[in-house]
Amino acid sequence: MREACLARPSLRRRKPFPGGGGVRRAAVGVVGMVLMVGGAGLGAVQSGSAQVTLESIPVGGAPAGIAVGPAGTPAAGFVYVGNPGEMSGDSGTAGAVDVISTQPGAACVDASAVPCVVQVVPLPAALGAPTLPAGQSVAVSPGGDWLEVGGSSGSGLESFPIEADGLLGTGVVTDAPVAASIGGATQLAFAAAGPTAGDAWIATSQPEVSGEFATPIFAPPSGGYPSGELVADVPVAGAANTVAGGQQGVALSGDGKIAFLTLPDGGGQASLEEVGVAGSSTAPTFSASYVPVPFFASGSGLPFGAAVTPGGGHVWVTAQTTSASDGAVEVASTTASPAQLSESGAWTQVSSGGIFPTAVTVAPDGSQAVVLNEGNQPLGTSAGSIVVFSTGPTPSVLASYSASSLSSISSPQDVAVAPDSSVAYVTEAGDPFASPTIPGSVTVVPLPAQAVQALTITSSSPLPPATLGSSYGPVTLAASGGSGGDTWVLTGGQLPTGLALSSAGVISGTPAVAGSTTFAVSVTDSAGTTASASFTLVVGGCTDTISGTHSGPLSLTSGVTCIDGGTVTGPLTIGSGAVLAAVWAHLDGPVSADGGGALSVCGSLLGGSIAVSGATGPVVIGDAGDLGTPSCSGNAISGGVSLLGNLGGVFVGANTVIGTGNVSSNTSSEGGPFYVTGVAANSFGGYLACSDNSPGASDYGQPNTVAGPTSGQCATLGATVNALGSWRRGEDPGTR
User: Which of 31, 254, 297, 623 has the smallest count of CB within 10 Å of its CB?
Assistant: First the structure.
């Protein structure tokens, strides 16, 4: 049975929801009518001293953390508020989670009031404490199926399942080992992708018992973990991160591969920890780098919030100052290395308009960042304020709500933005010591309507040239305008063999075939808008070219040798570090390579065998139209083909081979631009054997013709020809 009851004067019993499995209770009181639109529905939204009438949702207590359900999930249309409860002196309630519905027809106390509180779920006393009560931080999982609530120092988390109706089920408190390692949870952030996808990262407020900070990563109680599971404790990299105050904020890049943590360094300087995340979901690995933020000089105070734009392009950091000057907001590119982030030129500073900026969040459409200034601090007498910035490398103020223009906010605590980016929800702690007492509330702040610029690809063609056998770039395609969250795809043609385009628009890899290629790409933003462009990329870099006849043996020990229509009358050997690209060549003797770089042989006549082992780059012996451009035609090979223990991916395609084929123990980086072991559309006069390749050998739907037996990974990749001319796929003719 699910309980949704918190005994306090501002609540009264309601009838069970239709079809509900328990009793839910909703808040009683004056609930304002909120128009779920931008500034047009709420009158003029202005900066400065003009009064702005902001709609307020009374929730009582002292609301702190807040989260909004993601679009397209069960939590969409709901706002979840962590409410530590009313506090007086050294005693206080354990707190609760207030669930607010923003949907028409919600079962509110006043049916005409939308949004309104529709459920109040008490938090256990174990999660609460007068000095750092439960509810100070909340987060909704990317799938909208779990709500995490941060507890006080040493008390862990509570996990609530979010049910199909968006309301909360029975909470599960984490077990003691998890709780003991957490400290106070100042901010929570879920990873939407990467090795820790679906897990909550926790910014802590105190060092662990050892005196060093660590960032716990917690899996919600699903997938067989009835009490939740501590995935990892990630040590921070700072040498002096043991001061009171601890880690304040945590934010993750969109791909889940980088986490940003804000924390003091022990000398009063605000700093950032950049944590790289790799490995698999079952065994993630982490590497932390300490980044002192240049503007936050020594003694500048504590850092607080952290946020990353939805497309992952920029990280936002806020920090308190130790003087009456403005608080600081810093913005930097997430693609910068830790060393680059330590340089002042990597950051853009903007004023928060107050001395105590705390929470910062970025709208789901990536167009705006909302920064809160918490008022009533010892260092000044200013009340709270809200500043809305444009995003990007050079932010500007779009709207500011000063103390004199706010009708209901004096000390904002946390902020979340609606899925459609039209409004922000801000928790206001109220004042339990005022006379009369000022109750806590959630204020709905209209965000400025943004004129989204047309999405345009700004990179120009041709792209920077590539060099055979050498790592390319990486080169990142660029676009401007749109709503952010750009995703890139290849829509026409093919990239040069060995190169690939990532969804982030990054072209990387090691090219293996010389020539010029043209391909088309498109980019799509979070709103579904698409832009397209074509690019030309030239692969060259030959240090020696043979187009005539080279008499006798040829030994290559370094550089990039291109044989373009040339002839070599003797054996050809390629040593460590050397790169070969042969096209329309006549190679009389055998070809052997041991420990070389990239190697390609296309449309050539070989008078003997070819054997390649230990190559560090892609190896391409003809292709069957499955690779990139320029195309690499098949070869006529009088001997056999042996590819053993190569490290950069291999492909053998469309060749006529008089002898045998052996493709074994070849590897390449999983997810890399040439993660290939291809054996396709060849004709072999002898056996074909393949074993221990990663990835496994494939014919890409173009089977080989093999006169001998096929075995291992190639057992089903060939049609075997028997002595009578008939054949059976995968058959050994000796068995007939």
Answer: 297
Beta-carbon neighbour count of residue 708 at 10 Å? 20
412, pLDDT greater than 70? yes
Q: How many helices (H) and strands (E) does the chain have?
A: 2, 68
Instruction: Inform me whether the pLDDT recorded for 127 exceeds 50.
Output: no
Strands 357-362 and 347-351: unpaired
**CA nearest 260: which of 282, 236, 243?**
236
Over residues 241-274, the pLDDT tens digits come to 444 445 678 888 877 888 888 876 555 566 777 8
**Tokens of residue 609, six digits:** 């065998």
Highest mean pLDDT: which range of 100-114, 408-422, 626-640, 662-676: 662-676
**Alpha-carbon distance 671 to 369, whole Å?**
33
Q: Looking at residue 564, what is its pLDDT?
A: 93
Are 107 and 99 in contact, with CB atoms under 8 Å apart? no
CB 248 within 8 A of CB 307: no
The three-point CA angle 505-507-508 to 5° equals 140
* Tens of pLDDT, residues 709-726: 999 999 998 776 643 333
Half-sphere exposure of 169 (CA within 13 A, CB side): 13
Q: Map residue 288 onto helix, strand or coil.
A: strand
**CA 274 to the chain's CA centroid:** 13
Q: In the structure, what pLDDT confidence band is assigned to residue 170 with cuts at 50, 70 and 90?
A: confident
What is d(CA 386, CA 714) in angstroms, rounded to the nearest whole number?
A: 65
Give the model's pLDDT for residue 43.
28
Helix or strand (DSSP H, E) at 340: helix 338-341
What is the rounded CA–CA span in Å between residue 666 and residue 684? 20
Which H or E run contains 538? strand 530-540
